[in-house]
Inverse folding.
């Protein structure tokens, strides 16, 4: 399907920033390609704080990402277009990318579903994660691999799924049971320094 002229104009405005200010290019490449590793490290750190709040938050984030990806794949069946560098001349393309359906942005889905899930639970540093998600979305335009509409819908899918998961996940008893079983095994092999002796450990989740 064709891309609207407004979408192209906004893409050009953002993508041309790299031509006008070349110092932005390595920053955009870092956010577009490598911030994923920072996100993964953050999730691991949250998980191994070994608090029930952080662990349920990570579970909610993973479920939110799965839901958002499903929504994204379904939407891609009804609307599709190639990456800007494949359709437009003189694109400031800074990273390699296969030519396929660019709508919606998987990177944006990933970051917004997880970062918004963190924000819902941990507002204080959650704002920083949301800012990072926004920068990642913009960077995907700046490096030439997505149109603005890909980013906007990726963010919408991620945020909506995060809210749904935040509401739904604590109601799923089998997840609490799985987490409890996992922690029993974990405590056997890697005993926590301080163990909670509360019988109602998961009553609030």
């Amino acid at each position: 399907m064709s891309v609207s002229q407004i979408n192209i104009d906004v893409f050009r405005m953002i993508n041309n920033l790299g031509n006008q200010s070349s110092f932005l290019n390595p920053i955009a490449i870092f956010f577009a390609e490598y911030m994923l590793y920072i996100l993964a490290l953050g999730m691991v750190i949250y998980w191994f704080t070994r608090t029930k709040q952080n662990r349920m938050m990570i579970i909610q984030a993973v479920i939110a990402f799965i839901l958002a990806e499903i929504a994204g794949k379904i939407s891609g069946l009804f609307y599709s277009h190639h990456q800007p560098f494949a359709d437009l001349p003189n694109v400031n393309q800074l990273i390699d990318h296969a030519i396929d359906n660019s709508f919606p942005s998987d990177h944006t889905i990933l970051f917004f579903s997880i970062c918004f899930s963190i924000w819902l639970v941990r507002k204080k540093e959650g704002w920083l994660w949301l800012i990072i998600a926004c920068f990642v979305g913009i960077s995907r335009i700046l490096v030439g691999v997505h149109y603005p509409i890909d980013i906007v819908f990726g963010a919408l899918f991620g945020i909506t799924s995060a809210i749904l998961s935040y509401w739904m996940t604590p109601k799923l008893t089998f997840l609490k049971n799985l987490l409890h079983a996992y922690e029993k095994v974990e405590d056997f092999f890697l005993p926590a320094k301080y163990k909670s002796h509360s019988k109602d450990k998961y009553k609030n989740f």
